[in-house]
Amino acid sequence: MKKHITEETIIFFSVFKWLILSAIIGIMIGYLMSIFLNTLHYAENMQGHFPFPYYFILPVGLILTVWIIQTFDKNATGHGTEKVIEAVHKRDGQIDVKVIPVKLTATVITIFSGGSVGKEGPGAQIGASAASFFATVFRFSAQDRKKLVICGISAGFASIFGTPIAGAIFGIEVLIVGIIMYDVLLPSFIAGFAAFTTAQFFGVNYKYYDINFYRSFELDINLISQVIMAGLFFGLIAFFFINTVNFIERYIKSLPFNKYKIAGVAGLIMVAISFFISEKYLGLGLLTIRDALDPTLGLSESISWYDFILKTLFTSLTLGAGGSGGVITPIFFVGTTSGVTFGNLVGGDHIALFAALGFVSVLAGTTNTPIASIIMAVELFGVHMANYAGLSVVVAFLITGHRSIFQSQRLALKKADNVNIGEGEDMGHTDISLNMNDIDRVKNFGKKLKFKKFKWNKKE
């Protein structure tokens, strides 16, 4: 009995400790995120003050961003989340605090000038850096610093997404595919909720979508079949996004040219496409996401079938050329617009449904975060989305395979029995092999399913 009392006492003080620490981290990061988001909002409002289309300054904006990052902190390059995952796995969460002003400034300039990036990655990197600095100042152990940094990631995502539960889960689910670190679950929830509440207190407004498309829980075999097909489709879209972004980034880095020239040329390419085709692929693209989710189907008619392709291209060019920002908002754009395309292909009046499913399913496929994606569907679109999101998200997550937009993400889950993986390795160096015996069995089974050809002799 005495042993049990001692155990419960130790657990109580541990819970109390992390309740206080995670709340402090959440409030601190919520305040930082309010500065970041309000600055970004102000910058976007200034875009209309130019005597010419604002995106004409994109080449200059990318060159300036590259200069800031190369001069002050090279870790501020790219989409942020990648660097944070790497720091958690390889450096026990140790991150230089100077990345905060550099990342904030570089991201605002990139988005202000029209770069096709998001704000979630920078939010996670700023939050993780602040938590790491807090741990260093108060001399926490390496283990506690790692936990605090994970809380910082969750707080950053929660206060940027505007979804405290999904943001908190995303922060711990994105680190290792197939494993959720339950020892950080409570601190992450507290930090996420504290950051979300603090950001709201300092004037951050969040957008939620009442698409109100289908509230019946009756069994609809036809719709369920379409949702499963949509999951397959979104898995392929996620596959396309991951490979395109990674390929273009690698290709641009291999070019034997000056970084500033590459940034300028990439900016000019995006300016030309925007001028002659459409401006919708620039910046965050939130208006297009809103149109895709329009339940009246009126605004979704402005969505073209190739929108998700050009958005992927713009995001790849922006990041490959040295721009700073996240990939999650572009993933939302790609998901919703590809959802409209799928909805038009299958017909019917559920286009808003498929746009919403694309929003969370492509996220799950590209980042390997199915649980956070399902919770996000409920927080953003309502509880009636849970059944359909669960089907589509899990199918997309599996179909994407053992790959991720975050190459530092660790792999601890096989998505199929006949696939062998290097468990515990990061996505960029995972050795994936196929079980040839199982593949031969599938081939033989396929041959048996082939129809035999019969010859009919016409009787005289």
What does this structure look like?
This protein has 460 residues and is mostly helical. It has 3 domains: 2-201, Clc chloride channel, CATH 1.10.3080.10; 221-411, Clc chloride channel (Orthogonal Bundle), CATH 1.10.3080; 419-448, no CATH class. 64% of the residues lie in helices and 2% in strands. The protein has 17 helices and 4 strands. It has helices at 2-45, 58-72, 81-90, 99-112, 120-137, 142-161, 164-173, 185-201, 221-254, 259-276, 286-292, 307-320, 328-346, 351-367, 370-381, 386-399, 436-448; strands spanning 176-177, 410-411, 419-420, 433-434. The strands form 2 sheets. Strands 1-2 form a two-stranded parallel ribbon. The protein has a two-stranded antiparallel ribbon with strand order 3-4. α14 (351-367) packs across α16 (386-399). It is globular, with a radius of gyration of 23 Å. The model is unreliable at 451-460 (pLDDT under 50).
Low-confidence stretches: 451-460
Strand order of the largest sheet: 1-2
How would a textbook summarize the main sheet? 2 strands, parallel
From the alpha-carbon coordinates, what is the Rg to the nearest angstrom? 23 Å
Spatial separation of the terminal alpha carbons = 97 Å
Number of helical segments with 4 or more residues: 17
CATH homologous superfamily identity of the largest domain: Clc chloride channel
Shape descriptor: globular
Q: How many structural domains? A: 3
Would you count the extended β strands for me? 4
Order of helices and strands: HHHHHHHEHHHHHHHHHEEEH
Strand content: under 5%
CATH arch. level architecture of the largest domain: Orthogonal Bundle
